[in-house]
Amino acid sequence: GINAEYGKQWYQRRVREAVVSTQSTGVVDLVVTLEELYLGNFVTIKRDRPVYKETGGSRQCNCRMEMRTHMTGPGSFQMTQHRVCDQCPGLKLVTETEEIELEIEPGMIDGMVQKFSGKGEPHMEGESGDLYFKVKTLRHSRFHRKGDDLYTNLTISLQEALIGFDMNILHLDGHKVPVKREAVTWYGATIMKKGEGMPNFENRNKLGNMYITFDVKFPRGELSAEEKESVKAILKQASVQTVYNGL
Questions:
Q1: How many CB atoms lie within 10 A of CB 24?
Q2: Fewer Cβ neighbours under 10 Å: the N or C end of the chain?
Q3: DSSP conformation letters of 9-46
Q4: What one-character-per-residue DSSP string does 159-188 give?
């Protein structure tokens, strides 16, 4: 499970800043690491944002068309359209640098969106639009995420595949996941480590699983005739040569 003490230290250290492109509006990718999605984090977003400022003077605003009735003669009237505007303070568009604080919550997944009202496209008439940050996970060197589960590949030697091994996999918060095998491990075999996946976004006490698939690295070089006989004597394995369509 999550190493609470290590996670607390890592969490405190990982509060970070991010810069988004100038005058970003609409939907912006929030690029995060798998570690941040495992433990959570706070991110300070710095951005240059266009805003309207009062300049003094006035301008026409809230313009609309209104119908007016005119008497054109005794008992005769005519309706005409007229453009009518209010008087509002003068405005100019300026660029300001602002900071937005947002939280990466444990268990969030790709595509999740956080909305910041009034932080998007400025409008001269009315409120500014909204700004959305969409989670985008960086590729991790060891783990691949599917839902709340983590997948990884582990390469072992032929010797380890045959006689077993004992090792640890370093998890996202620094705790070690033990992997011990005493039986023969074949190429492509997969084992599951229960509760060693990602926290569930809705229920952080619920963790996914970790699936470990094994690759076997064969030794290079040639065996002597004596070594070959020794291997045969140890394995006692008859030929199983079979041709088949594996697709």
A1: 18
A2: C
A3: HHHHHT-EEEE--TT--EEEEEEE-HHHHHH-EEEEEE
A4: HHHHH-EEEEEE-TTS-EEEEEE-S---TT
CA–CA distance, 25 with 114 (Å, rounded to integer): 13
Residue-level length of the chain: 247
| Cβ contacts of 193 within 8 Å, gap of 6 or more | 177, 179, 209, 210, 211, 212
CB within 8 Å of 185: residues ≥ 6 apart:
156, 160, 161, 164, 214, 216
Q: Can you name the residues that pair with 103 across neighbouring β-strands? A: 42
Question: How do residues 6-16 score in pLDDT, each as one tens digit?
Answer: 444 444 434 45
Q: DSSP assignment, residue 205?
A: T
Cα–Cα distances (Å) from 118 to 48, 121, 128, 163, 176, in that order, read 15, 8, 5, 63, 44
How many other CB atoms are there within 10 angstroms of residue 162's CB atom? 17
Question: What token pair was written down for 135?
Answer: 């989670």
Q: Which of the four pLDDT bands, split at 50, 70 and 90, describes residue 25?
A: low
Q: What is the pTM of this model?
A: 0.73
